[in-house]
Design goal:
This protein is of the alpha/beta class and 328 residues long. The protein is built from 8 helices and 15 strands. The strands form 3 sheets. Strands 3, 4, 5, 6, 7, 14 and 15 form a 7-stranded mixed β-sheet that branches. The two termini are 15 Å apart.
């Protein structure tokens, strides 16, 4: 059987992308064959698509850390033909043939059965970004997130940021959205942000170990000095969920926020989330946490249009989510 896939090739240190025809024999060994209906574009996918060896070691390669579709072949009794399923994280699209293709083959341990309340399309409007936002909110609430104070979301117009703003607002929190894009103020207010601030406000260069207590919690998608500034501005006993490093992987602070304010830095690793917790988050996103604004924050594209979207996300010119439609 033949199918289409986005292939990233490497030649003499240069990387090119093309849509190629592959066969099922080209897929890696795995337990379950899935016909992919939808995927989504994440920043990590764009890094893989441009030759970042920290994400993908060997080329040619098909990126795509998200996939949703229908089981075509599966051993055992966990899944049967026709089951609607979701795969996000693990090694999908990193060093394993990913979701920017009409078929994938993956280990059974990577697969979540599509929860009731979500369509395949909605699951990829969320994708890793939505799952990451959900995991961040889950950990913040476990740490005692306060509904009476201000919660800041950095990189708020991006995929994870947009979904974090929307979800936290739905749950009744007061959200301040941080962005460098002034033109996105109306977009973020529509998602539920009460206040929009420029990211420069969260880029303190004084070097002070502690700053005025401003936030009762935070979701940080960018890292670097913005994360440091937010962390030094947390109120006593409050937490920040760190889930991205678009700005920088560096995090320069002293121990004073920890030992004088008792604040918490919550690391978010969506790719390796244990399956039990993974299922809980997806169930919440399909039920009590279901987001009703997915259409407003999603742009749909075909496999042929994906190349241009990859270039845009690397330039920081994508707002919200990019849904890849592979459904015939």
């Amino acid at each position: 059987m033949k199918f289409k896939a986005l292939i990233v090739n490497e030649k003499n240190g240069k990387f090119t992308r093309e849509i190629s025809t592959k066969s099922l024999n080209d897929l890696p060994a795995g337990d379950v064959l899935i016909k992919v209906k939808y995927s989504s574009l994440n920043y990590k996918d764009a890094l893989s698509a441009t030759g970042n060896k920290g994400v993908t070691r060997k080329y040619p390669h098909t990126p795509g850390i998200d996939a949703a579709g229908m089981v075509e072949k599966s051993p055992g009794n966990l899944f049967k033909e026709g089951d609607e399923v979701v795969v996000t994280g693990y090694d999908l699209g990193m060093n394993t043939f990913g979701g920017f293709a009409e078929y994938i083959r993956v280990p059974v341990e990577w697969i979540v059965k599509l929860p009731k309340g979500l369509s395949l399309k909605e699951s990829m409007m969320l994708g890793t970004a939505g799952f990451t936002a959900g995991l961040s909110v889950c950990k913040l609430e476990q740490a005692g997130l306060d509904k009476n104070g201000n919660i800041v979301v950095t990189g708020a117009s991006g995929g994870v940021g947009s979904l974090a703003v929307t979800l936290l607002s739905k749950l009744g929190y007061n959200i301040t959205a941080s962005t460098r894009k002034k033109e996105k103020e109306d977009y973020l207010k529509n998602l539920g942000a009460k206040l929009i601030i420029n990211s420069n406000e969260l880029d303190d260069k004084t070097g002070k170990p502690l700053l005025n207590r401003r936030w009762k919690g935070a979701v940080d998608t960018v890292g670097g000095n913005i994360l440091s500034t937010v962390f030094r501005s947390l109120d006593f006993g409050c937490s920040v969920a760190s889930c991205g490093n678009v700005l920088s992987p560096e995090f320069n602070i002293t121990v004073y926020p920890f030992i004088l304010r008792g604040v918490n830095l919550l690391g978010i690793n969506s790719a390796e989330t244990p399956m039990e917790l993974r299922k809980i988050i997806w169930q919440k996103l399909a039920g009590e946490w279901k987001i009703n604004l997915l259409n407003e924050l999603t742009t749909e594209c075909s496999l042929e249009e994906l190349n241009g979207k990859i270039d845009l996300i690397l330039k920081g010119k994508i707002t919200g989510r990019i849904l890849l439609n592979l459904d015939d």
